[in-house]
Each structure stands twice: as structure tokens, then as C-alpha cells.
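Q: Could you write out the predicted structure for this multi-component system? I'm mainly interested in how the pieces pack against one another.
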Amino acid sequence: MPSGLREQKKAETRAALVKAAQDLFRKQGYEATTIEEIAELASISRRTFFRYFPTKEDLVFPQQESRLQGFMMLLETHRPEETPFETLRNLTALFAADYTRHAERILVQQELILSSPDLLAREREIDRAWEATMFEYLAKWGGGGREAEHRARVLAGAAIGVIRATLRYWFSTGGTEDLNQLGQEALDFLEQGFRKIVPMD
Amino acid sequence: MPSGLREQKKAETRAALVKAAQDLFRKQGYEATTIEEIAELASISRRTFFRYFPTKEDLVFPQQESRLQGFMMLLETHRPEETPFETLRNLTALFAADYTRHAERILVQQELILSSPDLLAREREIDRAWEATMFEYLAKWGGGGREAEHRARVLAGAAIGVIRATLRYWFSTGGTEDLNQLGQEALDFLEQGFRKIVPMD
DNA sequence: GTGCCGTTTGTCACCGAGTGTCACGATTAA
DNA sequence: TTAATCGTGACACTCGGTGACAAACGGCAC
């Protein structure tokens, strides 16, 4: 944890950029806002902006890196006697609580994401990173072998697909429904299969 | 079907652009190839290129529009007594056969896609469109109601996630394994659940 | 404080994707 | 043949992103 004047100013500039960007995005939309405007509002040169954020999109997902890191940590430190589904359920509960706590901010962000194809693409890119992480965890759990790797890949894909779909549904309700319950139900589908549930009923 | 000189020339120019692009991409890579080079090789101006393809990425997925249209047609004209899973299995068989038939071309294209983040993003965008289409079909099948919609959304997400994961695995084997069998196995997971399959084995 | 060193920053120049506009020429329908 | 329509090329422009270099600044030893 370096805490000199340098690091402090860097953190301030970074925060100023995120805030400036959010303000401008909200006021005039993502695409209509240029990096030059953001930099100017944060009292920085255009060139320097790119030393803080490699792309404009990164302004919308400023803490995605650390979130993924946290997810990896959670996967690595889960109790070893758990089955993968138990781990998934616990993590779903954790993240659902987090999303519910910050529902307002997350819903605003989601609205912004939906407004731009670039941001949607970036969101899917992030999902892909999560899927890869989950795959690694599942592959480790399932032992070696090409067969186990295949199953891990498929389950990871299904899990992320299910989670993204659940989130979209939750967003569409304005965050009013119980996200944890929705997530657990989605995992029920995965664990027990869609057979009984979809065709009849 | 208009068939004047105009349409004919347009089709020729479009084909010439795709061919020029594929040649250049293969020779020097996607990102290293500029639109100006492609346009020059196809003997048209840079400006005219954008009248044929809205973006550079579209050159790599030239027939995606019609493929999705075909998918929608297949979903709409499936035999009405089928359950969704039967339909999914039939379509999986169809597409697996198609992919296997054109395996060589598809593997080359996949290699190209993997070489560029932009192309990967576009591929995910296409997946999203397919997921939306499948969701519409499933939602129609499952009757009305918010509950049914939710299940349709989750199943569509899981299905696309599973298919994409299966394709990735198939690509990683160089297209040597039986794609239809892999796909049907993936659908087995979805239909019967991962419970019995993943934890024990 | 002074002097030095490494990092951060601003400036400038550049590239490539994508868009608006307009005028010219070819295609087509009358 | 004529007139409307459409495709095209040329030009200028915006914006995201990068490389290079010099000036400013923070950290540190003395």
C-alpha cells in the first residue's frame, strides 16, 4: 500500500475521471460524450486520460478487474468439502446481496450499458472472463481428463448464460424482485435439468 | 428478385470485397489490414466500401444475417407436436452437420476470430442475437406469464452458453470430434441436469 | 534547502475507422 | 430519347487510440 503524494494524486485523478464521465454520460449519453470533454472536465490532457484508462469503455466498468479478482479468491478459498453447486449457490447468494445493496447504482449503469453496442460488447467480454475463471475452477474440481474438461466447459457456459439471463430479467423488473431467489431457481434448473420444468406445467 | 445490371454488379462487388478481405486477412492478419487496402484490391474507393459493409467486422461474418433468418424460419416451421428439447436436438443435428461439412472453412474463420478482440466481441454479439431469437421461440412455447418468460430466458441463456462452450471445445480439437454427439451430450446436461453428472462421476 | 533520478504529464503528430456532402456518371423506366 | 434514380468517387471531417519527446513534478539523499 504505497501512500505517497504521487499515489494519492493518481487515485484522485482516477476518481475525478470516473465522476466526470458519469456526469457527462448521464447528461448527454455515452456515445455523444467525447474523451476530450471528459478530460477537460477532470482538468487533464487528452493524452493523460489514456494513461488512466486504456479505452473509453473502461470508464463504465472501473472496478471490474478487482471484482473478478475477488471472485477468483472466493473460488479458491471455498470450503473444500463443498460440491461445485454448493459453492455456486453460496457465491450466488453473496453476489445477489451485493447487487441488491447497490441496486440503484447498478440499474443506472445497466441503462447506460444498454444504450451502446460498444458497452454491451464489453459486458459480454467480461462475462467471458468470468466464464473462463469458473471453468478453471470446475476443471480443477472435476479431476483431469479431456472428458471432465469438456463437462467443466459446458457447465461454466451454462452457468454464466443462466446468470446473465437472470440478471437481465432482474434488470427488466427494475430490481424489484428477490435476486437471490431468482438466482437459486436458475441454479435449480441447471442442477435438476430443464426437462421436468419446461415441457409440462 | 430484381436482376438488372445494377444488382448483378453489386453482388459482384460484394463478393470481390469478401474475397479481397479474406486474402489480405490471411496474409497479414485482421488488424494489420486496413480498409483502404481491401478497397484498393477490390478496385473501389474507400468511401464505397462502407456502402457495402457498415464495419470492417462485417467482412468476417458476411452471411450472418441470412443464417439467423434461416434459424428463425426453422424455429417457426418446426413440427408443432415437438417439445422444445426435441426441436433443439433436431436443430443441433442440422447445424452440426452443416458445421462438419464446412469444417475447414469454419476452422479458418475461427482462427481469424480468435486473433482479434473486435471479432470476438462481434461473435458474442451474434450469439446474443441467437439467444434472443431462441428466447422468443421458447417464450411462445411456454405460454404467457412472467414466470414462463423467466424460464424461457434462463433456458435460452443456458442453451446458447452450452452451445458456445461445445463449439469452443470442438474448435480446440481441430474439428476432429463428432460435433453432433458433443452437442447432444451438452443438451443431455441441460435436460437432465448437471447434478448427477458433475459431482460424482 | 539543493541536487539528482525516475515517473508523470502535456504537446504534437500521426493512424485508422466511420460519416456527411456533393457532383458526376451510369442505369433504368417512361 | 429523355428524365428520374441510383451508385460512385472525392473531399473534408470527427473521434478513439498510439508513439515520441521534452518539461514538470514527486521522492530521496545529502
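A: Regarding packing and overall arrangement: Chain B has a mean pLDDT of 92.
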